[in-house]
Write the structure tokens for this entry.
Amino acid sequence: MDLTSYNDIHNFIGGQFQPPLSGNYMDNINPATGEHIGQIPDSNENDVNEAVEAATKAFPAWSASSVEHRFRVLNRIAELIDENAEALAIAETTDNGKPLWLSKRVDIPRASANFRFFATGIMHFSSDSHTMENRAINYTLRQPIGVVGCISPWNLPLYLFTWKIAPALAAGNCVIAKPSEVTPVTAYLLAHIVREAGLPDGVLNIIHGAGNTTGEAIVKHPLVKAISFTGSTRAGERIAALAAPKFKKLSLELGGKNPNIIFADCNWEKMMTTALQSSFSNQGEICLCGSRILVEESVYEKFKVEFVDRAKALVVGDPMEEKSAQGAIVSRAHFDKILRCIDTAKQEGGKILCGGNAITFKGRCAKGLFIEPTIIEGLGQDCQTNQEEIFGPVVSLQTFRTEEEALQLANATAYGLAATIWTQDVSRANRVAAKTDCGIIWVNCWLLRDLRTPFGGMKNSGVGREGGWEALRFFTEAKNVCIEL
Ligand code: NAD
């Protein structure tokens, strides 16, 4: 198995690699160097039809296979990801622009953890039974759904791709999966891994292409019964509109505009270190990044000075270098969008405390897409900068005087994905957590993930929760069987 070659990416259908039926391809560019990595299929509904046919054929045997068998195959996939972690991390960095160290320490280990978690999870998965005194007994029969669609974004390419696929396969479904067309490489390499691991042909089919063509063809296909989607709120809305009239099961993990709420009594050093990470990790391209930093007024000036100093000291550079805290922005289109958002912030009256510009380098990264860590202050809650997701290394600072004001600001967007609360007052932490309209709330930490917990957003950040039993339940059809005694 050679995981170092990905110039010519192919679709993976029925266990075979094949070119798109139309013969059309798109370019894949390394965002850190501008180098042309290779081509990816620009697939259409004909490719999706073939994949659904292969998945439908594979479903009876896979869904009837023992959980022990599924455990073994999925666990082997996890082992092979670990054994090939170095090659996968290099491929991901080349494709995405994120620092190699981040891919090695976070993305790839979490991708294998996804398979390991759901491989073992299915061995322990159970369903409920309810007795009605001496009259009857009900039990919930959970069966795999059939053919399901999994669509993922570019920011954590292998991690989020596997986050959807692993529970779907563990629960006995056959999958049509589409990675982002911006970062297709690790999904392509995963196809080699699943084949080597002995996943039967047709159980996982990976189709490459754009969202509005390939993605929509998956969502619209009448035999695809459920869609698990992670991506923007805009695309989630479109997918929901397509799927609703067909009554498909939907899980939508969407955008965020997450508040990072800092009270004066917090553990200062831990908060400062973590706030820097939650602002700029992965170039700010994590849905869970805290892009709105809300600071209690009494410590605002102190915070601002120290935070700006630390942000200025962050090294932005070649993602292959260990010292680079921040790598390249994923694509030209996204790079332009972030710079436009910074311009908007200026027009709205925001003061740029640091950053605000693209960076150019000499040498290998001369054509790369880099943006300075950017901190903005002085903007009201209603402006575009504080309302819309930027998804880059850009944060906005605001202040509050009271707990009520902090909550009012925290909840004042259409999103509700994640929040972080910094305080040593345990009662306040619990009060604020309960009143913050977000699906994930961290107290005195950020990005800690226990895969057993439900994961997902409220409001425009999504519907349905994934993670733990929620994901395995999502990928099953529940029937109640009632037996009169
Ligand atoms: P995107 O919505 O543009 O694309 C995501 C995926 O959906 C891609 O594979 C794309 O090709 C596909 N797609 C796009 N339009 C589609 C359509 N009409 N039908 C079917 N598929 C379609 O998002 P992106 O730019 O790749 O990723 C960034 C976004 O993802 C941000 O908004 C970020 O917050 C969000 N995100 C959310 C989470 C979460 O867990 N909530 C995690 C990571 C990223």
Residues 151-155, 160, 178, 180-181, 210-212, 215-216, 219, 230-232, 235, 238-239, 253-256, 287, 389, 391, 417, 457, 462 surround nicotinamide-adenine-dinucleotide (CB under 6 Å). The chain has 15 helices and 24 strands. The radius of gyration is 23 Å.
